[in-house]
Amino acid sequence: MVEKLENNQFIFDIIDQDGKIVKSGFNNSDGDILFGVFKFGIKDLNKPHMYTIKERVPNNEASEGQTSEIGYSYDPREFKVNILLVDNGDGTMTSTTTIVGDNKIKFENTYKAKGTLNLTAKKVIRGGFTPKNDQFKFKLINMDDNKKMFV
């Protein structure tokens, strides 16, 4: 079963070389992670800008790579990103982003639902008839796809 991705379901952080979160973003329903605009100034030229992007595990959830109580696993991978800023000489800058070791940042989560059901039923026949053990059989049908689940 594929679980539909919801807006703002997962949170991701951009972390600088000092370990400080400089931006956070959420996914949209298409899976894109939206961090917003990075602003740089003249003081940022000719300096290395290296960041790590990782998925944040919410408080009270499973650790990275483990399945949480609500059934989601969190991707433990971290992506390293380098940003090079070039002065265009006309009052603007151009940035070039390089993803170290990968050509794409893609986080993958899995969803595993668990559950139990203790279902009981009773057959009642009016008029004094007493059924024998196992005289009647019952079916549990999945109404979504009309498949028999249990006999």
Question: How would the global form be characterised?
Answer: rod-shaped
Report the total helices: 0
Structural class: mainly beta
Low-confidence stretches: none
Q: Roughly how many Å is the radius of gyration?
A: 27 Å
Q: Fraction of residues in helices?
A: under 10%
- Strand coverage percent: 25-35%
**What is the N-to-C order of secondary-structure elements (H for helix, E for strand)?**
EEEEEEEE
Question: Going across the major beta sheet, what is the strand order?
Answer: 3-2-1-4-5-6
Mean pLDDT: 83
Biggest sheet, open or closed, and with what strands and sense? 6 strands, antiparallel
Terminal CA distance: 23 Å
Strand segment count: 8
Description:
It is a single chain. By secondary structure, this protein is mainly β. Helix content is 0%, strand content 31%. The protein has no helices and eight strands. A hairpin with a 5-residue loop joins strand 1 (11-15) and strand 2.
Fold blueprint:
Layout: E1 11-15, E2 21-27, E3 33-34, E4 49-56, E5 78-87, E6 93-100, E7 140-142, E8 147-150
Antiparallel strand pairs: 1-2, 1-4, 2-3, 4-5, 5-6, 7-8
